[in-house]
Amino acid sequence: MFVATVVVSILLAVILLASGVGKLTGQKQQLETMRKVKFPLDKLWLLAAAEIAGAAGLIVGLFWWPLGVAAAIGVILYFVGAIGSHLRVRDSSWPPAAVLLLLGVAALVLRLQSA
How far is the CA of 3 from the CAs of 17, 20, 34, 78, 103, in angstroms? Predict the structure, then answer.
C-alpha cells in the first residue's frame, strides 16, 4: 500500500508544484483562468504558496505521516474552494479541479492506510 501512497503523493506534488510555479511566473493560461473566476491577480501568490506548501507537505509526509495527512486535507480543501470558485461564476472548466480533488482524497486515504 505504501508504494501506491508514494506514487499518488509524488504525482500530486508534481502537479501542484507546476501549477504554483505557473501562477508565480504569470503563465498565460493560469492568468486567464484566474480572471474567469474573478480572483484578484495581485493575490495570486497566495494560491501559489498554498500549492507549493501542499506539494512539500505531501513529499515530507511520506516520511512523517501526520504531515502527509495534514497536507492531503489542505489540498482537498484547496480544490473544494477551486471548484466552488468555478461554479460561482458558472465557469464550466471545473472538471480538472475535480480530478485533482479526487487525487487529494486518494492521497489522504492511502496515507492513512499506510501510516
Answer: 21, 25, 35, 25, 15
Q: Which domain holds residue 93?
A: 2-113
Kindly tell me the burial class for residue 38, based on how many C-beta atoms sit within 10 Å of its own C-beta (0-12, 13-18, 19 or more).
exposed
- Cα distances (angstroms) measured from residue 103 to each of 27, 37, 38, 108: 23, 22, 25, 9
The predicted-structure confidence for 28-44, as pLDDT tens digits, reads as follows 999 999 999 999 999 99
Residue 36 near residue 43, CB atoms below 8 Å: no
Looking at the structure of the chain, the number of domains it has is: 1
- Other C-beta atoms within 10 Å of 31: how many? 15
